[in-house]
Structures are given as structure tokens and as C-alpha cells.
Specification:
Its cofactor is Zn(2+). By secondary structure, this protein is an alpha/beta fold. It is built from seven helices and five strands, in the order αββαβαβαβααα.
Length: 193
């Protein structure tokens, strides 16, 4: 991936107007007892009419994974999955119990007219996906693994840490069980807050 492309699409802005594509960097490993073996890595982006998450699921499903072996897939995405993609991913994970998926996201995607994405993320989490917001070390890893960086060191942009913390808190609130959210609201009401 070109440096400019990575820096533009993965910048963890709170409001990322004009960034309409989702990029997905991936690493696929097979776990053999205490060791793991890298099978593949690379990146994909949305194609006309198809979200990148679905493209990856089609790609990996064609591998004919051995059900007797364990696999770990790690994604670094420029946007969190939409509701429909979250459903597809959750279904895929249920079909492959020998596969674990970790998703590190630069930004949270919310479709303005549906507002279903938080529920999609909750279902994805419940299906066993480990989901988190990218931090400096994740951007650093991507820079060194997926970017044609010409041996230039990754330099974080202004606001990278603050935005990661803000988005991580937002994601934590989304993933918090709804009964805990109601308990917190009740506690704030009692306190007059």
C-alpha cells in the first residue's frame, strides 16, 4: 500500500468526511500448539458494489480450511464494519469454530439513516470477534507490515492518541451490555447528574 493512501484512509479522525472506501489489512496464521505459522498477509479495499469485509470472507472461504486446525485472522480496517457486514462476519465465525478473528479499527462507521451499526458491533462481539480501536502500536505495525514506506519511520499525526482514546471509550460504551447502561443511567438520575 502506498504511504499516502495509508495515511489518508487510516487517519483516525473523529469526523472523516470524504473517506468513502474501507481498507482492510490482514494477517492469516495457523496455530499449531504453542507456535503459529503465517499463511498470508496483504490488504484489500471495497470493490464496486461489494464491501471489503465480504470480499475477504469470500477469499478465505475459498481456502478450504482444515477443520482440525486452528486459525487466527487479524484485520486492521480503516472503518468498522457496517451492520450488514457485521452480520455476515458473525455468521461466518459461527460456521468456522476453529477460527478466531481480531479486528482493529481506525474509525467507527455509523450510517446516518439507520443507526444500526452499534447493534451490529454488539452481535459481532457476541459471535466471538475480538474488536478494538487501533492505537499507535497498531498503526506502527501496519506501517511496517503493509505500507511501502521506503524505510521511513512511522510518525503519528496530531491527535492520534486522543482520538484513539475517544473512539475506544465510544466502542466500550457500545459493547457494554444494555442492562449495565440502564443501571448507569439510573445511578446518574439518583445522583442528579
Amino acid at each position: 500500500m502506498q504511504r499516502r493512501l495509508f495515511l489518508y484512509n487510516f487517519r483516525n479522525l473523529r469526523k472523516a468526511k470524504g473517506r468513502r472506501e474501507t481498507y482492510l489489512c490482514y494477517v492469516v496464521k495457523r496455530r499449531d500448539s504453542a507456535t503459529s505459522c503465517s499463511l498470508d498477509f496483504g490488504y484489500l479495499r471495497n470493490q464496486m458494489g461489494c464491501h471489503v469485509e465480504v470480499l475477504f470472507l469470500r477469499y478465505i472461504a475459498a481456502w478450504d480450511l482444515d477443520p482440525g486446525r486452528c486459525y487466527r485472522i487479524t484485520w486492521f480496517t480503516s472503518w468498522s464494519p457496517c451492520y450488514d457486514c457485521s452480520q455476515h462476519i458473525a455468521s461466518f465465525l459461527r460456521s468456522y469454530p476453529n477460527l478466531t478473528l481480531r479486528i482493529f479499527m481506525a474509525r467507527l462507521y455509523f450510517c446516518e439513516d439507520r443507526k444500526a451499526e452499534p447493534e451490529g458491533l454488539r452481535r459481532l462481539h457476541k459471535a466471538g470477534a475480538q474488536i478494538a480501536i487501533m492505537t499507535f502500536k497498531d498503526f506502527f505495525y501496519c506501517w511496517n507490515t503493509f505500507v511501502e514506506n521506503r524505510e521511513q519511520t512511522f510518525k503519528g499525526w496530531e491527535g492520534l492518541h486522543e482520538n484513539s482514546v475517544h473512539l475506544a471509550r465510544k466502542l466500550r460504551r457500545i459493547l457494554m451490555p444494555l442492562y449495565e447502561v440502564d443501571d448507569l443511567r439510573d445511578a446518574f438520575k439518583i445522583l442528579g447528574l
